Amino acid sequence: MPVNIPADVGAGIEAIDTPCLLIDLDAYERNIQRMARFTRDHDLRHRAHAKTHKSADIAHDQMAAGAVGVCCQKVSEAEALVHGGVRDVLVSNEVVNPHMIERLAAMARQARVLVCADDAANVDALAAAAARYDARLEVLVEIDVGAGRCGVAPGAPAVALAERIDAAPHLAFAGLQAYEGKAQHVHDFNERRARIDEAIARTRDTVERLEQAGLACDIVGGAGTGTYAFEGGSGVYNELQCGSYIFMDADYQRIAMADGRPIDDFENSLFLYTTVMSKTKADKAICDAGLKAQSVDSGPAVVFGRDDIEYIGASDEHGVIRDPDNVLRLGDKLRLVPGHCDPTVNIHDWYVGVRGGVVERLLPVTARGMCL
Amino acid sequence: MPVNIPADVGAGIEAIDTPCLLIDLDAYERNIQRMARFTRDHDLRHRAHAKTHKSADIAHDQMAAGAVGVCCQKVSEAEALVHGGVRDVLVSNEVVNPHMIERLAAMARQARVLVCADDAANVDALAAAAARYDARLEVLVEIDVGAGRCGVAPGAPAVALAERIDAAPHLAFAGLQAYEGKAQHVHDFNERRARIDEAIARTRDTVERLEQAGLACDIVGGAGTGTYAFEGGSGVYNELQCGSYIFMDADYQRIAMADGRPIDDFENSLFLYTTVMSKTKADKAICDAGLKAQSVDSGPAVVFGRDDIEYIGASDEHGVIRDPDNVLRLGDKLRLVPGHCDPTVNIHDWYVGVRGGVVERLLPVTARGMCL
């Protein structure tokens, strides 16, 4: 199979094949340091969410800056990072498929492995698999703090499930998964804050009931890039799971701008690099980044640093760019900010890390497509 | 790296790990035969579009049924299929990046390679690369027949570009690329037909002008699954490029139903297989297929064969299923019809081919993610 690495280390940015993912290494490193500073200043742990980047290299950069480990969403994603040297992984999701429970339990022989649960029969299946491998699985009870997705109800149902985990020989009750996924992308500041206040109240109540039952929460985890300051200041959450902060994307930038956050907050460090591949019309250009180079679920990409042109539509392999002043030329290269970073990253095999216009690092997307 | 093949040949369908792509082999084979019959009955060639499936195995099945070769949209995609044994490939798109022009020309030493062009300087670059490899590249002039995307204007501009190709020693003028991409998904039959009538008129005029200039079109190519019967009956187009017919998807099925097409037309043969992974609410279930298992650009997935439940929302790794009668249980498996097959396929590494409830074939997505 031909090699499809979009660039060589040492090449100039103009020589990069497109479409591909570009990391601005300066902005990326500043984002890592900013999150490390926030969690350090607030006496919190950061368990960086690797669902965003799916890269063992990036996970190691985050841990070198202080992250205690990573979160993953899938067993196969976690395996890829464990093979890449990460030794502390929370699968922040339920694992139900029997074969994947088997792989999860086996992985716990190699690394510290944590997983979430919201069902009693699933806890029993996790316990049985852990016993077969003589492994120790740490289990968080996932509570539904408002997103209406996975998770048992806070309060008594969470305590009952925690007791079941605590009673299982090869399982250890590790705490609560209390992520409010729906609040992350709420554009209105006050509504977002109100949703997290509600999540914090439900979580606090559950932590207290668990304590009354004699069950301590080593981890009270949750929070994402849209809300981490709220959970981080709550006094209840002790482990933040932010992922997107490292790259940002068009939707998270719109939220930051609506909040009026300072410009020294998280920066766009991930770009979809694209080339103008057809220019037969005066008022538009066609670029080579379409639906097979990005996910448009959260709106289209934004052309970085340009307000004279606009990315207005994507088909499978093409992007349409409005070019009212006819400034673009065949072969021109542009940086697009993806509408939504996570599912866009999941399409690509490589990141091209650039600094000062030169390719400095090539990072494989270690767990690309690992959805099992 | 652990193996992430979702199933073993011979396994029962219930043992397949999810989320993954499932092919109903019976429906798939009927689709191939139907398209073969249509093109045979209308004395047309079929150059199957491999952008849909990106699979060398499927390309060989299509060619075994009569397809003359395949279309690809990218050089790296074409390379993957050439390495998989396909020896007649049209890159039905412009190639502008200098490094990829180099790879295109080099590939023409191994296989019949055709490419599209809509720019004179690009034709010169193709000619120079073909000369460097002492290769022969066949070039189609892409004309814009209404989609407003790539392509020169029909008529005189197309003739001028064809003459430039014809004059270049290592290039051969092969005909016209006249694909009306925007018409494929127009839901109103009369509007769709009118758009293609317009495309046919522009194409016919250009073919005649080329003949007057002494340039014969070996290929007049275009058409997709939404409109192939129109181009196929035009007497102008001689090579159809349908791709999605082999799988269908939720949007193409909506169009077929709106047209009142007979039920022996193309069938859904591709499914996103998913498992209920959380069931803590009476009125909904959470499944394991979200944005990292499908593209939602053309609307959400449809649960196949069920009107008692509905797939209503996707986040990165989760799908929300409305379950008003509380019929779903943890671990239940469902077949989803993807909203849009092409960019959904591009996320997955494997197809699991099933017949009679048993896994019969595992097909790698040979050119997955090959977007260069």
UniProtKB/TrEMBL annotation, chains A, B:
Q: Fetch the Pfam families from UniProt.
A: Ala_racemase_N (PF01168), D-ser_dehydrat (PF14031)
Identify this protein by name: 3-hydroxy-D-aspartate aldolase
Stated family: Belongs to the DSD1 family.
Cofactor requirement: Mg(2+); pyridoxal 5'-phosphate
What CDD domains does the record point to? PLPDE_III_LS_D-TA
GO terms in the biological process aspect are: D-serine catabolic process
- Molecular function in Gene Ontology: D-serine ammonia-lyase activity; oxo-acid-lyase activity; pyridoxal phosphate binding
Q: Which reaction does it catalyse?
A: (3R)-3-hydroxy-D-aspartate = glyoxylate + glycine; (3S)-3-hydroxy-D-aspartate = glyoxylate + glycine
Q: InterPro entries per the record?
A: Ala_racemase_N, D-amino_acid_metab_enzyme, D-ser_dehydrat-like_dom, D-ser_dehydrat-like_sf, PLP-binding_barrel
Keywords for this protein: Lyase, Pyridoxal phosphate
Locate the D-serine dehydratase-like domain: which residues? 269-355
EC number(s) per entry: 4.1.3.41
Which PANTHER family does the UniProt entry name for this protein?
D-SERINE DEHYDRATASE, ZGC:162816-RELATED
